[in-house]
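In practice, a research group might receive sequence data for several interacting partners and want a quick structural hypothesis before committing to experiments. The following worked case mirrors that situation: the sequences arrive first, and a predicted assembly follows.
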Amino acid sequence: MLSQLLERKYTHLFDIYDSDNNGWIEAADYMHHVKMVTEVRGIPADSPAYKQFEEDTMVRWEQLCGIADRDGDGRISRQEYLESAEVRYYMSKGEDLVAHCEVEYGSLFDLFDTDGNGYITVEEYRDITKIFGLEDVDHAAVFARLDLDGDGTISREEMMQLLADFFYRNDPDAPGNLLFGQF
Ligand SMILES: [Ca+2]
Ligand SMILES: [Ca+2]
Ligand SMILES: [Ca+2]
Ligand SMILES: [Ca+2]
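A structural hypothesis for the assembly, expressed as tokens:
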């Protein structure tokens, strides 16, 4: 059984991914995500970069389906999502959490780091909150808490700590809980 806190966090993330709020994560939600990311990054719909991002995103969708779509109906219910998150949670037990995060959720860093220079700025974080539909997040205040060493950016190492907080830790005060806004 997952703790209440973990279940709330995973449910919150499910709701973000389920961009049309129909109760399932589907390929259409991932396509919406592609549209939002490329719009924010200023990538034209007919460019090779768009095609590439679309392809990469569909690979991630297939991967999620492979793990989470237990009944094989081509979409992920909330229950299926929670079960797959729980499996990953128990797989992390006794492991180095940061290393585990790099394998399971490392692609999230690349999503946040829009220009790919190896760290996340407050502007990039603001863009992500927009992409995720978190319009009411005070991104500057949240960013200040996520920037663990206070140097003004989020490094890959910090991001893995934050992801470990979010996905694997039961501490209600852990900064990484705020990574995807309030829940
Ligand atoms: Ca949906
Ligand atoms: Ca399913
Ligand atoms: Ca960056
Ligand atoms: Ca930092």
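Before designing any experiment, note the following. The longest strand covers residues 24-25. The mean pLDDT is 94.
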